[in-house]
Structures are given as C-alpha cells and as structure tokens.
Write a structure and sequence with these properties.
Layout (H helix, E strand, L loop, with lengths): L8 H20 L13 H15 L5 H8 L3 H5 L3 H7 L2 H9 L8 H11 L5 H20 L7 H16 L6 H17 L4
Helix pairs in contact: 1-3, 2-3, 2-8, 3-6, 5-6, 7-9, 8-9, 8-10
The structure holds zinc ion.
C-alpha cells in the first residue's frame, strides 16, 4: 500500500497560497504601524484577523483566509483590484473589495456606510468584518491610541458594535469573543 501523503497536493497548494498572501501583505504594509501606543507592525493585525477567520471556518476556505490577510491592502497600500486578480484570483479580489471602504469619502461618511452596508455583505465577507472588529477591540484594550481620550475610545467601541449588530450571519464563535471584548471595553471607558 502506498504511504498516505500529508499534506495532500491540494492542501500543500493552499498552504503555499496562504503563505504567499502573508508575505505579500507584509511587504505591502512594511512601513505601516498600528495606531496604538506600542505601534506594532501592521502585519500583526493582518495575521490576527486571518487566524480568527480560520478559527471560525467550519469547512476549508483558503481564499477567505487569503482575503483576510489582504483585507487592508487596497485601502492602505495602494493595491488595486486588478493587482489582486493577477497575483491571486478573482474570488480573493472580490472578497477584498467587499471589505474595502471608499477612501475618497470623508471618514464619518465611511463609518456611517459601514453600518449601513453590513447587513448586505456576503456571509464570507461578514467573517472578515467581524474578525477585523475583534482585532481592533483587542488593540483598544491592550494598546489604545494614546492621543485618543476616553470619549473617543468609547465612541469607537460603540460604532464597532453598530457595524457588528448589522451582520446577518455572524460566526457564533467570533460573536462570543466580540461580545466579551465589547462589554469589557464599555466598562473601561464609561460614558462621561
Ligand atoms: Zn483591518
């Protein structure tokens, strides 16, 4: 009997594509740091979001993990949809575009649109959205932006909850983590 190969050829191919995306994202965001006091490399956020997404999966979906790694690459690093199609594939490009804000709009309008658009996102895009908000709330807990006062931090937490409340098919596992962080942060940043 021939020995069983592990990983299988297709699992190996998925792993290689995921690592390609991780390296691509790290290179594109190389000069970017998180807003918090510890100014972590931005890639830490991307890896955290991708890990949360992969933890939430009930069946394999390598393109979704890849899109999670790339979720800020259009918004923050000047990559285009066409670049993503060439470098990855159409599915990855569509997912990334679905979670990308229109940067030509003012910040407040973008935030309002995130709340408005959340219920209309595909189930897969909703997983990335929720994982992104979890990562941002965790950062708000351990390393909030120093220049943000308590009111501004609370406003961010309240807004993130409004976006998440609009998701129609959130992963129960991720939702539980979001709720825990949301409650802890509201207590930490009380209404003034
Ligand atoms: Zn993000």
């Amino acid at each position: 009997m021939a020995p069983t190969l592990f990983p299988t050829a297709s699992q190996l191919e998925s792993l290689q594509r995921i690592l390609h995306a991780a390296q691509y994202a790290a290179a594109k965001h190389a000069q970017q740091r998180r807003k918090g006091a510890t100014a972590e490399p931005y890639v830490n956020h991307l890896l955290e979001v991708a890990r949360l997404v992969s933890d939430a999966l009930e069946e394999p979906d390598p393109n979704l993990v890849i899109a999670a790694l790339l979720h800020d690459v259009v918004e923050d690093a000047g990559v285009t949809r066409a670049d993503l199609v060439t470098e990855f594939n159409e599915d990855v490009a569509s997912l990334v575009m679905e979670v990308t804000d229109d940067k030509s709009l003012p910040k407040q309008e973008r935030k309002r649109l995130q709340v408005e658009h959340a219920p209309h996102k595909t189930v897969r895009a909703q997983v990335i959205k929720l994982a992104d908000k979890i990562s941002n709330l965790r950062a708000m807990l351990v390393s909030p932006p120093e220049s943000w006062d308590v009111r501004r931090r609370r406003e961010y937490v309240v807004w993130a909850e409004q976006v998440v409340a609009g998701l129609t098919a959130p992963s129960p596992l991720l939702m539980k983590e979001f709720r825990r962080l949301h409650a802890e942060l509201l207590e930490l940043f009380p209404e003034s």
